[in-house]
UniProtKB/TrEMBL annotation:
Protein's organism: Enterococcus canintestini
GO molecular function: isomerase activity
Mitochondrion recorded as keyword: no
Record keywords: Isomerase
Keyword Calcium: no
Protein name as annotated: Sugar phosphate isomerase
Amino acid sequence: MDKNKIAAQMYSVRKELEQDPENTFRSLKEIGFEAVQLDGMRGHQATEIKELVSKYDFKIAGMHIKHERFFSDLDGIISESLLFNCKTIYDKYIDDKEQHTEGYIKTKKQLITTQATLGKIGFRIGLHCPEYDFNNTVEGRTILDYITDPVFGTGIYAEPDTYWISVAGKDPLEEFEKFSGRAPIVHLKDYIKGFSPDDMDSNLTELGNGDVDFKSIIEWGEKSGVEYYCIEQDYSKIGIFNSLAKSFDHLMSL
């Protein structure tokens, strides 16, 4: 596995970033990460985070942007993206109040419009989904399928997630295969079968400790245009940097 293609999702270290940005980036570098995926500034100025990204020589493996900003702050999104020299941006999570058919249709329309507009200057707009977007449907399509279905040749990129697909009771590889060439960045976290879907304390674990077949996911990704495999750990029982190190080492072993 090429270590340059492994990224850390900064949501994993959201508390650490808020408290001590420099130590956070230093610790990720010490683990071996060469890339990070941004998930907000956690109370800091974007310029401060940019300085640390540059100091520790990280590549930016996409940026997660709050849902409402796609409707109210496109100029701000553009400025932030250009600051970090990253034009691959994701709607990180469709707001709860928009989790219904009308909201999904509205979201798709806005993301398609944004892609059609910003795509002219090299942007890629995508969507990241929690578990219910792999079960809920609009017009007979699951949410990620529906929103990423092209409209007159313009499509939204997918950011499928092994854990949330598993929580939804589906096979990660089968879901990932839908998005060949349309998922430049994918999220990897492991899942232990046999627990309640909402029991994250028990069913979420480091890569290699659970039931997800990451070897098959990587084999698919290497022939399907994946640029970054992004490790996300929502929380840890052993210390978040220990968790990220275990997951990083597992990917490197494949």
